[in-house]
Amino acid sequence: MITSKIHAIWSRELNLAEFADTDDFFSLGGHSLIMTRIQREILSELGIEVPMDQLFRKSTVAEISEHIESTLSAA
After folding, report:
1. pTM of the model
2. 75 has pLDDT over 80
């Protein structure tokens, strides 16, 4: 569920219909302004604030989803 929501957010913000969950954000044309919008959308849709440094370090949908799931399970 989290992965599909993150994928949908990326799809909207990057204006891409198809990409793999393991594709790198920056290779897909992402940059800091788009990442800021993605951060805001994650908070809005999932109620989870992911720090910007984590979004830049974990630059795939799969990595961000894993980070969010581990954060939720630790809470």
Report:
1. 0.93
2. no
